[in-house]
Amino acid sequence: MSQRYRAEDLRQFACALFTSAGLDASRAEVVADTFLQADLLGFTTHGLHRVTTNLQWLQSGASRLQGEPHVLADRGNVFNWDAEFLPGPWVVHRAIDQALARVREHGVVTATVRRSQHIACLAAYLPKIVEQNCVGILTCSTPAEHTVSPQGSKTPLFSANPIAFCAPAGDYPLLFDISMSVTAGGYVSRAAREGKKLPGKYLKDRDGQLSDDPRAFADGGSILPVGGADHGYKGAALSAMLEVLSMALAGYGRADDVSEDDEANSVFLQIIDPGAFGSEQSFLRQTAALLEMWEQCEREGHINTPLRIPGKRAWHLRNRQLEKGVELYPSIVDDLKKLAEKSGIAMPEAIS
């Protein structure tokens, strides 16, 4: 049975772990809150689950404890940074804050960040954007990663290449975070850890045969692109587009020697102020109408569950867990308890 913990207790615990590794408290708070936001929204494979690897990177020196990103270009409405392996969540929040500070003047601000340590869950960055009544687009790729094979090939080429989007609307924002692979690598790893098969044949083994066994991926296989075996050319095209936006614009990616970069990301983000195009109320009228019409769509005859509208479940889950406690996935609790024992930092008490 899953256990619940107060959100603030989890934030403080993760922050204490990161400061114990030498990260400045103000930066540790940002990193800890990013992972917490992911679990609040229900993205459990990229939330507090990622604390262990991020601690290891800080302790080994793979993540820089200090310093600022190197500014490669800055035209006001466009900027490009080299993070030089600063902690991913901290540097991406820094870039978003910079974009939000500029967007009222410029209307649209676009940024790229290269060589950022892994930035984890993209959805975790969206609440602060939508709460400023802005539209946000965020994507990242991993130059050293080859996990997703194009349709018709058994050779893994792309990384998972997630894209996240948010727009203010009515009672909840339009919000999503999806990868250009049929399933995320985190779910493949979780299935392998638990000795389970995947819900469908989302993988190819090293011979190119479809498989639902996570061991096929670990043994030189690949993950299918969005669209699967039949329409994967669509996912491959989108993967290429996102690598152009994140790697090519940032000036660092497939053409470079990235063998030592591990999970470091190339990042693309864009913040849009709807008020730069006209009335904010006119914008909200349109987005709210879209979601209302979506909710009123007639269900298929055999489906009794509510329609899945991007953002509705995640936003309501976030509000509920902030009020009643965060329900952590069981394996995350196990991992955090191990970190508590190893570090001597007390694990938060469960509230249910």
Automatic annotation (TrEMBL):
It holds the Pfam family Ldh_2. It comes from the Bacteria. Keywords: Oxidoreductase. InterPro entries: Mal/L-sulf/L-lact_DH-like_ah (IPR043144), Mal/L-sulf/L-lact_DH-like_NADP (IPR043143), Mal/L-sulfo/L-lacto_DH-like_sf (IPR036111), Malate/L-lactate_DH-like (IPR003767). Coiled coil: none annotated. The keyword Oxidoreductase applies. Belongs to the LDH2/MDH2 oxidoreductase family. This is Ldh family oxidoreductase. It comes from Microbulbifer harenosus.
